[in-house]
Fold this protein.
Amino acid sequence: MHWATVWESIVDVVGDRPAVTNGTVTRSWSDYENRAARIAAAYTAAGLGPDSKIALYLYNGNEYMEAQFGAFKMRGVPVNVNYRYLDNELLYLLDNSDAEALVYHSSLADRVARVVGSLPGIRLLIEVDDTGSSGVSVDGAVAFEDLVAGHDPMPRITREESDIYMLYTGGTTGMPKGVMYATGGITQYFCGLGFPAIGLPVPEAAADIAGVVAGVHERGESAVSLVGAPLMHGTGLWLGALIPHLGGGHVVTLTSRSLDPHEVLGSIAMRRATHMTIVGDSFAKPIIAAIDEAADRGEAYDLSSVKMVLSSGVMWTSEVKEAMLDRLPQVFLYDAMGSSEGSMGSQISMRGMPTATARFSANPTTKLFDENDQEITPGSDKVGRVAAGGLVPLGYFKDPEKSAATFREIDGVRYSFPGDMGQILEDGTLVLLGRGSQVINSGGEKIFPEEVEEAVKRVDGVIDCLVVGVDDEKFGQTVTAVLSGSPEVTAEAVIAGVKDQLAGFKAPRHIVIVDTVPRAPNGKADYKAARELAVAALS
């Protein structure tokens, strides 16, 4: 299977049904494919071909989905780019990914203009207007709508299941990495998740999907997916868009640049959304509060269409799940445990069913291994490294060393080791205990301490620094810098200095100033001691 081939088969049977909506703009499946085919023609006219990387530096919207579909159509590789990235981060990712085309919103054009001169591999710049300005903001760029209007649709082609699909992830250590899958494998895997969820068998080939989808639409059972999470993250893209689209569903994105819970709820009511994709507590809490606010005003939203709320990427606590089920008693809550490197388990909750934090039903292919690669028997009290089997990535793009460390074969079976530690109970429950590395997960964003530490150290007066994650009710963790420096150093100056270098979400929310940053005699970072200092200072 291949994303584009599946979607083309869906167009042939339900072409008049809605495929994507953003704000007031809805595209039918036929319109969606036509625009994607014109974009694919533009890619090829610029000299791009199979395996060419097409970077999407975009907020959520129809254009994100169209540019991605266009890439799939011509066997290119769409590359997700965090729209929060500043100049250096953007430059790194575009260079690391070997991007040949860049699609970006005009509100992000200033950053693009400052880095594009250092990227000779970029052949095509496409600007999506979100500022209401005429023309384009970057020399050599073409307006998205002009590009669509200026090309005939590219004819459908035969594609290879071995084509690379790639998603950039924060990972566990170092800079962001492109996680590579064979397109055929991940498309089939997502079909295996999506079709059973609506009580249907998994089609064996793209041609078989069309008939299944036609039946779903005839029965009025097609999914309407409200994507609350960013499409540039796996949670929003995979759970919110790609899986629903494989079933011929309708993907609805929001116009707000940050979470507006009332827009979420209003869109659910207007579009009769059946599914909503969020990111754990940081999304669920404001949505719950908005439900209550509307009810208190006597203007309760009609949320009766919602069947499932999906989350991944950050911890979703039992208390918040129960609060959500109190407001939406008809829904199932699907809490996915995994990462871009592989799925490990999930938890499904419904009203009246006990919920738990950091406890999941382990996938049959999920194992625990000790430091000697010996499997830990479920039901033992031993803690081990969580290994995800089944669909395992091909590796990290251009990083064989980290690929070899993360994706390994044990007893003839290939596993992914994303860095999580846990236990598996006798009944198959996976108890997640935390990361073996020091990566910080704040509101679903993965933040590397080393990167923030270097930015902190560049601030005048800072001597040494370690960055840790401190537990936070809303965000899961907050970035906290434990530093030493001259008497003139202030928390405000440090935070402002980091924000001048990195995306705002990476900047420390808390600063703890100490006489000496804890390190081992050999100079290695003592993150445990630094975290203890941070927790004590913030208590």
Summary: The mean pLDDT is 92. The first helix runs from residue 3 to 14. The radius of gyration is 23 Å.
